[in-house]
Write a structure and sequence with these properties.
The protein is an alpha/beta fold. 35% of the residues lie in helices and 19% in strands.
């Protein structure tokens, strides 16, 4: 199965177009966060989402924590998918499914150890997919993504095997480790931001290299 590729931290219509032309399946649009890279105003998120053609998915990254606030953020920006970066209360996850049933819901799990596996049954009934990242939500300044760090892929691989939902892998990915990530974790998709950027801008060469590395891993090692 082909690994899906989500390019995050899209900053403009031009970057969206570049990522789509390179073969991206989904684009990440980052709303207000306490830390991290790639944040853009809601008006820009809405503008980019409006220009992206199907079947490309637009992911709104939101740090809101209640179903009502997440739903309001969705309505301001009109993405196809919402990526919830906080470990919200499961009751709020269930409520969001009622408020915004037409929008696909992806719950971020910050992998700080094997306890990440305990969150599969907490959120699994209410979301369409998981995304494993390397944030530290309990830090003094919470980190919800964009760290440029990898985490323990042995935990991620176990999460993928146990999850009833598709799983994206994020955190410190680049062309140099995309193949290893696919072969070890076997995720549904890869998600990255800084690994395809130079001085904060989407880099066409890095983007092409990453796509090639992912496709080569999907095809497997050469025979002989």
């Amino acid at each position: 199965m082909r690994t899906r590729i989500k390019i995050c931290c899209i900053a403009s219509v031009e970057e969206a177009r570049m990522a789509i032309e390179a073969g991206a399946d989904a684009l990440g649009l980052v709303g207000p966060m306490p830390s991290g890279a790639g944040m853009i105003p809601d008006a820009t998120i809405s503008e980019v989402a409006r220009t992206v053609p199907p079947p490309i998915s637009t992911f709104l990254l939101t740090s809101e924590r209640t179903a009502a606030d997440i739903a309001a953020h969705i309505r301001r920006t009109n993405p196809t998918t919402v990526q919830i970066v906080s470990h919200i209360e499961p009751e709020e996850s269930a409520r969001l499914a009622e408020l915004e049933p037409q929008v696909r819901r992806v719950q971020v799990i910050h992998v700080e150890g094997p306890s990440a596996l305990d969150l599969i049954p907490v959120y699994g009934p209410h979301v369409h997919a998981f995304l494993l990242d390397s944030g530290r939500p309990a830090a003094a300044t919470p980190e919800f993504g964009g760290t440029g760090r990898t985490h323990d892929w042995t935990v991620s691989a176990e999460f993928v095997r146990a999850s009833p939902r598709p799983v994206f892998l994020a955190g410190g990915l680049s062309a140099a480790n995309a193949g290893a990530a696919i072969l070890q974790v076997r995720p549904f998709g890869l998600d990255l931001c800084s690994g395809v950027r130079t001085h904060g801008r989407l880099d066409p060469a890095k983007l092409a290299d990453f796509m090639l590395a992912a496709r080569e891993a999907d095809e497997g090692p050469p025979e002989g």
